[in-house]
Amino acid sequence: MEIEKYKKLAKIIVVLLIILFVVAFFVLPNMNKENGNKNNDEEGISTETPFNASNYDNGKMVQDYLNPTDDERAAVDERYGIGNTIFNEDGLYIYALNDDEENRLVTDIWPDTPFTNMVVEPELDIYLVEVGETYLSINLEKVTEKDLKKYVKSIEDDFSRELYSRHSETLYRAANKGNIVVDIKFYPDTSTALIRYDYQNY
User: CA of 167: how far to CAs of 176, 180, 182, in Å?
Assistant: First the structure.
């Protein structure tokens, strides 16, 4: 009689273990996939291939620095480490990880900072702006040489002391009286440009 009770109990335990196994390895993973597809649909990203923030939209890690997605935040944490970055109303702040780097702000809109207020904002398609402690870097896309020459005209009164450059991509390199150096590079193959202001001597 006692043995029969144990046999029944053992059968019940085996059935429960099988049910738990099925739920854990088949039901729950399928539910997570369905939830993931719903989230992707809401963000307007194709569900046919997994979303990878680091290579979506021409390599831009974050599509909107003022409104990053959870996937983009995760990609930033993976690249720079958890606790080394912070998103706020200006964009993404990245804290220097070693002596060769600087604390910097990365954004895709023209930020309001002491450095950006000292220079002429380019009226061109801004891809990324990076403001470090000693530099301002402006990445532009969909630009022509004519666009950049127009920008040079807008700054050449202030940056009148032209400097030599070894780089063939450099369109204009000059310094102002405060020894701030501007270097404007144009890449015709991709219709992109880089404007960099260096403030080391400021």
Answer: 20, 19, 14
- Report the predicted TM-score, pTM, of the whole model to 2 decimal places: 0.68
By the 8 A CB rule, do 83 and 91 touch?
no
Q: 173 forms bridges with which residues in the sheet?
A: 183
Give 138-173 as a 3 state SS string. Answer: EEEECCCHHHHHHHHHHHCCCCCEECCCCCCCEEEE
Tell me which amino acid residue 176 is. Answer: N
Q: Which pair of structure tokens corresponds to residue 4?
A: 């029969």
Distance, in Å, from the CA atom of 174 to the CA atom of 185, rounded to the nearest integer, reads: 12
At residue 138's C-alpha, the angle toward residues 134 and 140, to 5°, is 170
- Tens digit of pLDDT for each residue in 25-56? 555 555 544 444 444 443 333 333 333 333 33
